[in-house]
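Purpose: get a first structural picture of the assembly so the mutagenesis plan has something to point at.
Setup: two entries, given in the order below. No constraints added.
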Amino acid sequence: MDLGGIVHQLSESFNIPVLSALFLGLLTAVSPCPMATNIAAIAYVSRRVTERRYAVITGTLYTLGRMFSYSILGILIIVAGLEIPGVASLLQDFGEQILGPLLIVVGLIMLNIDRLSFGLGGGKLSSIGERVADWGMIGGFLLGALFALAFCPYSAVLFFGVLIPLALKSTGGVTLPAVFAIGTGLPVLVFGTLLSAGVARVSTWLNAVTRVERVIRIIVSIIFIGVGIYYVVLWIQA
Amino acid sequence: MLAKLKIWSSFLLVILVANLLCACGSPAPEVANEGELSTYHLEIDLLGAKNTFSVDSQGRLKTSIEALSGDGKISLSIREGTAVLAKSGEPLEAIHVAATPNPPPPPEDAHIIGEVYDLRPPGANFNPSIMLTLSYDPEELPREVRESDIYIAPYDEGNGWGTCYYKRVDTENHRVTTQINYFAQFAVLAPVSTKEHPTSDTPSATTDRVEVVYFHRAQRCAGCIYAETGTRYTLETYFKDELASGKLTFKVFNVENKENAAMVKKYGAFTSSLFVNTIRDGTDNIEEVTDIWFVLGNDQAFVKVVKSKIETSLEVVR
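Result (C-alpha cells, whole complex):
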C-alpha cells in the first residue's frame, strides 16, 4: 500500500492524531518538491565521513530545526490565532523565490572553501570560509529550520490544510507540528546516516579518507547548487 | 510552460513524478490483441492545412499531435494514446475543420466572436479529451466585455448551444482553449454583460446547487495538476446531467490572480485546494476536500473520493 493510502486509512479508521501527524510528515518528505530540499539535506548530513557520529547528530539537529520552525508556526496559528491564508501565501512565496538563490549561494560558498583555504592560505576570506565549514552541526539545525519554512503547494496543503485543522481539533494539538517535523526529518536522518557510514567504510578500504572528504564536499556543493537551480527554474517558469 | 515544469520535476524525481504524471484522470483502455496492431492513418485537415498521423487498430494515436491551421486561428492538441473514434466506434480516418458558411444565431446571452468552426465528422469522439484552441481578435470584443470572460461553446442543430466546462483565456496572445471530447460546431463567445458582473447574482444563484471550486497557484506541481484533471474527469464522467442543468458547477481559479480575490477570500484558499460548496436557500456551506491529497496518482481512489463527496452534496440540494 502506498504512503498516501496509509495516511488516508489512518485518518478514516483510527483517531490517533499523533500517528497521522507522523505519517503526514513522511508523506511530505517524499513528495517531489520537499524531497529536493531533503536531497540537499541528506548530502549535507552525510558529508563528513571521518567523524562517525557527525551524520547522526547533524541529522538529528536538522530534524530539530524543522521541529523548531513547524512548532513556532503551529503556536502562532493555534495559540495566537494567526490567519492561515496570509502566512501560507507568504511562506509559499518564500519557498518559490528565495530558497533557490539561497541554496545556490550556500553551494558556491562551500565550493570556494576548498579553493580559499588550499589556494590562498591565510587571509580574511579563508577564515570566513573555515567558519562556514564549521557551521557543521549548527548548519544542520539552520538548514532544517529554513527548509521547513519553504512551502510548496503540496506541502502547504498537507501542513496548513490537513495537519493544522487536525491540531486545532485535537487536545494537545500544539505538539502535532513537532511530530510532523519528525516525520519530515526522519528520511534525512536515516538515509544521511546510512550514506555516511557506507562512504566511510569504502573510503577506509581505499585508504583515502581525506581525499574522499574533499570530493564529497564538492559533490554536496554541486547538489546544493543543482537543487537551487531546480527551484529557480520552477519559479521562473511559473 | 507546464510541460517544461513536468520535464524538470521528472528529471530530478523520475520515479515519483512518473507515477503521478502517467495517471491523468482516465484509466487507459485495455490493450487487446497485441498481435494485430496494424497501422491506420488519421488525416487532419485544419482550414486546408493537411497532416497525416498514425493510429493503431483501436484508434489510439501513436504520437502526440499539435495541429495548427495555416492562419494560426485554430489548433488541436491531442495527446499520444488518445483514442480517436468515429461515431461507429471504428478508428477515425479523417478530421476536417472549416469555418461554416452559415453560422447559427448566437445564444441569447452572448455574442459570437469571429468565425464559427465546423469540426467534422459529427459524432467523432476522443478519450481522453483533446484541447481545442481558437484565436480571437480583441478588436471584435464588445467594449464592456472583459477578455477573461470570453469562452468557447459547442453548437449542434439538435441541442443548440452547449457548455464547455473548461476554459483558459490567454489574454496576451488572444487565444481561448477548452477541452472537448466530441465534435460539433465551436465558436468563441463573449457574454452579453448588461446586468451581472459578479457571477453570484445570476438567477440560478437563488436555487439550490453545488459549486465545486479548485484553486491553484501560478506555480503548479505535478500533483496539483493531477488533482484538477482528476476532478474534472470525475465531474464530466459521472455528473454530466447535473453540470448541464446547472445543479453542479465547476470553476478553477489561480489564488495569486488579483481578479479572483473575492473568490479566494470567500473560500479562504491559499494553495492548491478543492472545495465543495453546497448552496441551499442562498446559504453557502463550504467544505474543503483534503482527502484527495492522499490518493494522488491512484486514479480509482481519486475518482471515488471526489465522486462520493459530490454525491453527498447533491443529495442535499435535490
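Residues 73 and 135 of chain B are 5 Å apart (CA to CA).
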